[in-house]
Amino acid sequence: MAVNSIHWFRKGLRLHDNPALLEAVQGADTLRCVYFLDPWFAGSSSVGVNRWRFLLQCLEDLDSSLRKLNSRLFVIRGQPANIFPRLFKEWKISRLTFECDSEPFGKERDAAIKKLASEAGVEVIVKTSHTLYNLDKIIELNGGQPPLTYKRFQTLVSNMDPPDPPLEPLSKVLMNGCTTPVFDNHQEKYGVPLLEELGFETEGLCPVVWPGGETEALTRIEKQFGKDSASVLQEIFERPKLNSSLLLASPLGLSPYLRFGCLSCRLFYARLTQLYNKVKKNANYDKLLWREFFYTAATNNPRFDKMEGNPICIRIPWDKNPEALAKWAEAKTGFPWIDAIMTQLRQEGWIHHLARHAVACFLTRGDLWISWEEGMKVFEELLLDADWSMNAGSWMCHSCSSFFQQFFHCYCPVGFGRRIDPNGDFIRWVSPPTRPLRHCSAPLVTSNTPPYTLLGAQHLWSPLVTSNTPLRHCSEPLVTSITPPYTLLSAQHLWSPLVTSNTVTALDTAQNLWSPPSHPLTHCSVLSTSDHLQHAP
Among 8-12, 153-157, 440-444, 517-521, which is the least confidently predicted range? Predict the structure, then answer.
């Protein structure tokens, strides 16, 4: 009896190190690789045009790679649960393979598809390859609960076997006579659509900074770990110098490719291991392990992206301010450093991790006091490497709602920008002004004494926060020693607003988050790079 396989691509958009794909061709007569795309969802979802462009480029690249193996990618319009039963019958399928999805929605969807496959007599094979470890095993080692501190997570995985090495890519040899039935109308029926076909307006779309696809991902990792890897060694083993060039998209960056699975995390881990062995340095896999940590924390928590009903999230009475949220998202806050970051995010789909901390702190606990859920939604729309677990986990961390609770350690929207970009080069590169700016990182004010007011025509930005709208916790204010509401003791702190006693008391009572300091604080707290690397991804 013929063995006809379907491999279902979701994440894992690659041919290298794809164990589920290799299972699909094992002893099979035919192979069809499918990807489900819902055109209605594309037009109505919150995912922005840059992310859709990246995804479609990934699919084009995947189809191109399959063509070299005399196969094709079948991009199918519609919902898997509605279409799989028909495909099982029409193509006489006996085997379905796909990569394990650790996220709650994915697990629920996959359970429904497994049920449909079982009813149709189709064998289902699922393999783990989007994460380094089996997340259920980590939770089991932790007594049935996910570890909620990164240190505990590190301890657990350090006692586990190393991740499996990456597998070889699918090739004609491994296909071993397995074929893909392709007809003349394949492109019309199953081809990768254009952005315009999905309802997106492409006029004025910024040039591609991050080309999508496995081919680009492998090119980048080869440049990183090839013969000329001196820059990589410097980046890994030396503390990066804070300057504006740090904020620009790197031609060697990998995060979007890991998110879409164009690059195997196990391949990245293996290449890092080879490099550490070569230079005889202690291995540091933090860039990958923070990713695993958030996946593990989220895997059994369907409310991970919410404050309410989320057992690990602190309840904070955030303000509702749609106007301020819109100005933050549209880069119209009046703070050039913040606006430049948000402009880069909207144009390119990526911002540096320190920039992410800066704009997240500004939106939440630093200044606007708006819920991290709102910021998470904006990142979901615009950020190429945002996925459900990483995005929600990072925002809870940035807002001190979970994982990280040094609440008064904030990124000043002026001081931190000046530290990284003292000459305003990044701000001018992202948003070139029509006339020279004074004090490029800060809104222009009349004096150094409150109330702070805008000079008006001399500055291109209208500041979102003025003397009539107190800033919240951008920096650690100089406060009274015991009793809230905490009041400013010195005019030297530009970004030191009041916190109402009701807010402080409610938080302190309900969550033990806030504790009045035992002595006056004496300096504005702006996190250093080392602080950041110790406490957050």
Answer: 517-521
Residue 396 pLDDT greater than 90, yes or no: yes
Pairing between strand 95-99 and 73-77? Answer: unpaired
User: What integer pLDDT is reported at residue 528 of this predicted model?
Assistant: 31
Tell me the average pLDDT across 284-303. Answer: 96
- Tell me how crowded residue 6 is: count the other CB atoms within 10 A of its CB: 24
- Percentages helix, strand, coil for the chain (3-state, rounded to 5) are 45, 5, 50
Q: Are 7 and 157 in contact (CB under 8 A)?
A: no
122 contacts: CB under 8 Å, gap ≥ 6: 88, 93, 94, 95, 96
SS3 430: helix
CA distances to 153, 405, 447 from 513, in Å: 23, 7, 35
Coil, strand or helix: which one is 9? Answer: strand
Please give the Cα distance from 288 to 535 (Å, whole number): 15
Q: What is the enclosing helix (H) or strand (E) of 333?
A: none
Measured CA to CA, the distance from residue 148 to residue 207 in angstroms comes to 40
CA 422/CA 420 separation, integer angstroms:
6
**Mean pLDDT of the chain, nearest integer:** 81
Phi, psi at 6, each rounded to 5°: -115, 130
pLDDT tens column, 208-246: 999 999 999 999 999 888 765 555 666 555 566 777 888
Chain mean position to CA 69: 32
Mean pLDDT confidence for 379-405: 94
Decide if 98 contacts 110 (C-beta within 8 A). Answer: yes
Compute φ and ψ for 346, nearest 5 degrees. Answer: -70, -35
Segments of 190-271 assigned E as strands: none
Both tokens assigned to 111: 């359970």
Q: Which of 99-103, 304-308, 469-473 has the lowest mean pLDDT?
A: 469-473
Q: List own/partner pairs for 182-185 with CB under 8 A and 24 or more apart.
A: 182/71, 182/72
Q: Which residues contact 420 (CB under 8 A, 6 or more apart)?
A: 242, 243, 244, 246, 247, 354, 426
Is the peptide bond between 485 and the residue preceding it cis, with omega within 30 degrees of 0?
yes
The 3-state DSSP class for residue 483 equals coil
Instruction: Provide the token pair at 389.
Output: 């677990």
Determine the Cα angle at 132 with ends 127 and 135, to 5°. 75
Do the beta carbons of residue 384 and residue 290 sit within 8 Å?
no
* 3-state SS class at 319: strand
Share of the chain above pLDDT 90, in %: 67
3-state SS class at 35: strand
CA distance 108 to 100: 12
Buried b / exposed e over 135-144, threshold 16 CB at 10 Å, is beebbeebee
Question: Do residues 467 and 479 touch, judged by C-beta distance below 8 A?
Answer: no
CB atoms under 10 Å from CB of 466, counted, come to 16
**39 phi and psi, to 5 degrees?**
-60, -35
> Is 113 or 429 the better-scoring residue by pLDDT?
113
Quick: pLDDT tens for 32-56: 999 999 765 555 567 899 999 999 9
